[in-house]
Amino acid sequence: MLSLRKSRRRPQADKTASASGQELLVITNIGMDEPTRGDNRGLEGTGAGVARALGARNLYLDFEAVRARTGCTKKRDSYIRGLRQIFAENGRPAIVIGGRNNSGQSNDLIKAALKDLPGETFYIEGNTPKLSGHYNGDDEILPHHLTPESLAAEGKKFGAAYPNLEHPLIAVMLTSDERGENIEKMASIFSQYPEATVFLCGCKRTGRGFMDDFTKTLKRGIRGRGAADRINVLTYHFDDGTENPYIGLLNEADHVIISGKSGSMTCEALATGKSVFITDGDHECDFSKKGFAAYRESGHVKLLEDCDPHAELATDKVKPVNATARIISGIVDDYRRYRQGEKILQRNYNPDTEYSWRQYHPVSIV
Questions:
Q1: pLDDT above 90 (res 204)
Q2: Which H or E run includes 255?
Q3: DSSP label at 345?
């Protein structure tokens, strides 16, 4: 087993009522952070899973969700009033999955809104690497919001939106930087195919200028190898105004390359049951060489720099990797022990200045 922490049995639905006598409420709170960030999507999936396991209501909150319900603004007092209105309508949450606190002060705001309300809330606070480190013993394989069902459904939508693509379909998931030599190597590898479709898919942090430069460099490299008439290059940018094909592309692609450093995108790709190629982008941290060591050994993760530039990509079918279920089980087990009166080790320091997940405890009672 690759995980350092044993898997728990699937939790049964918990019909325990909250202290107020209402049905349990689980809130995932993103606050004013960017909801499309992989970290936040992972928290969203974790919160939904915890709610399912406990038979609870699930409520996702970011700024736009709170504004739509209450008409609040981003001013602190207005936002807190909006949260309190939601609590008045739905009851105090039994559990809050709180995410990180360094963007929009999301945890401080919701804790201020909970202050002086009757009862207690079991509060989980921390970004996805810290939650995965605590509950999995591995801070690299991160939780996400994807399921086999959602992947299949998005795959069908992708097929309808992009019919008759030449295969193999090679997905290149862009971050925000990449080395020129890596783009040249991709051009060389892609040119080995008799025909193929290369789909460059940007994320929220992919700048338009960077994507344009990447696309031009790649096409120039393919053209210079005499393969321009055989290799079709498609692109998607976050600001295109069209539906994001990312999840469907992950599902339908024959090969997946994560260009640049993104733990979240790597883990989402690993949920598809295909081995994934990663690069360092333009970072000097040797992310690809140092990260995912156990998963490189198992063949789940491969380094682009180890690939033969004159051969086609060698993608393997692998067991899907999913840390989300183990994190959900860990949170549910901790919550049940808390409800049974057991002492739960709580946070006693600032998580924004503490970087060791081995010493991190995500639970507090507020």
A1: no
A2: strand 255-259
A3: -
- Residue entry with tokens 């609870």: 56
Encoding tokens for residue 15? Answer: 């019909």
Which range is least confidently modeled, 67-81, 142-156, 213-227, 278-292?
278-292
Cβ atoms of 365 and 123 closer than 8 Å: yes
DSSP states of 154-178: HHHHHHHHSTT--SSEEEEEE-S--
Which CATH architecture group holds 25-143+324-365? 3-Layer(aba) Sandwich (3.40)
Query: In this structure, what DSSP letter does residue 317 have?
Result: B
The alpha helices in the chain, defined as continuous H runs, are 38-54, 63-70, 76-90, 106-114, 128-136, 148-161, 180-190, 208-224, 246-252, 263-270, 287-290, 293-297, 324-339
List pLDDT tens digits, range 33-89: 888 777 888 899 999 999 999 999 999 999 999 999 999 999 999 999 999 999 999
Q: What is the value of pTM for the model shown? A: 0.80
Q: CATH number for 148-306: choose from 3.40.50.720, 3.90.780.10, 3.30.930.10, 3.40.50.2000.
A: 3.40.50.2000
**Is the omega angle on the peptide bond into residue 35 within 30 degrees of 0, that is, cis?**
no
Question: Cα–Cα distances in Å, from 359 out to 99, 141, 208, 308, 362?
Answer: 17, 18, 39, 41, 10
- HSE of 54, CA atoms in CB hemisphere, 13 A: 30
